[in-house]
Amino acid sequence: MDIRFTTIVIHRNGLNRLRSTLDSIISATSLIDEIILVDNASTDNSIQEISKIYEGINIIKNTVNLGYGRAANQAINSGKGKYFLICNNDIFVPSNILNNFEELFINEPRAGIISGQQTNLKGEITRTSSRKHSYLSELDGIGRLDHAKDPQKISEVSTLRGACLAVRKKMIGKIGAFDTDFFFYYEDTEWCIRAKNHGWKVLLNPSIRFIHIGGASSDEFFKESRIEFYRSRIIFWGKVFPRLIVIILHLWNIPKLLLDLIFYSIAVSVTFGQNKRLRRKMQDRVSVFLWLCLGKPNSWGLPKK
To answer: Looking at the structure, do residues 112 and 170 belong to the same domain, yes or no?
Structure first.
């Protein structure tokens, strides 16, 4: 029997959110679909519990945390589906999601990567797509002036946020899977850009909606996750921009990082450390700045790599 969708869930810790995610995915699948769960060395016994509850799910158990893209590639290499649905472990999908994605793939033969519209638990729309990346968009402060909203109808976009991506297997055969130079963050952005550079469409269908909690895998290690973000960002610059642009980005963003650190340190002091958002902003800048000053040590970042 031909497999239609291979749904891939990347997991590390968090039994309850994983069960909710799997329950919603199971409700969307049929006998022509399969589910592969990739566990990145969870430490909370969640996989042992999942193995008892869900007998029909294929589980890949890693002894170390391979990161998002490398773990997804494991399932891509073993999945038999014509299409893939690559998911975080903190999303809830509607029961018709696979049917809707399949219909769009059929109607758009050059569609390589598709996402639906993300919402939060309250049903409020959260940003799912971005405009074309340029060196201006990567300049902190300046680049954030662009607050364009997601399109209101099926549209081509530059990049998608990778909480729930539907991907055509044929495209992967042509351009490759996730770039494993990225451990966490930016692997979805680079993949979308690579797809478009090879003539594939990256689409957002806002009528397909799914809930994404967001930050569930990294909140416990906030400072470490921010280092991973900045490490991936630097890797991303080197892959998509000329060397001169990369130098300009560093010349702007590193001083900007220091100015932010000074600003948030003062703001936290003035508010006596009572504002959580300001405290996190300061922790972010302190962690990344120290990491840069110490030569970007590979040992810093998320644990169990």
So the answer is: yes
182 residue type, one letter: F
pTM over 0.90: yes
Helices within 152-304 (DSSP H only)? 169-175, 187-197, 222-240, 243-270, 276-293
CA nearest neighbour of 83 among 168, 177, 201? 168
Task: Please report whether residue 300 resides in a domain.
Answer: no
Domain that holds residue 103: 3-212
Which positions of the chain have pLDDT values less than 50?
145
pLDDT tens for each residue of 249-276: 999 888 999 999 999 999 999 998 899 9
Domain count, the chain: 2
Q: Does residue 62 sit within a domain?
A: yes
Distance (Å, rounded) from C-alpha 130 to C-alpha 16?
Answer: 31
Question: pLDDT averaged over the chain?
Answer: 92
Residues 43 and 30: beta-carbon distance below 8 Å: no
Task: Give the whole-angstrom CA distance, residue 54 versus residue 60.
Answer: 14
Here the tokens at position 18 are 């994983």
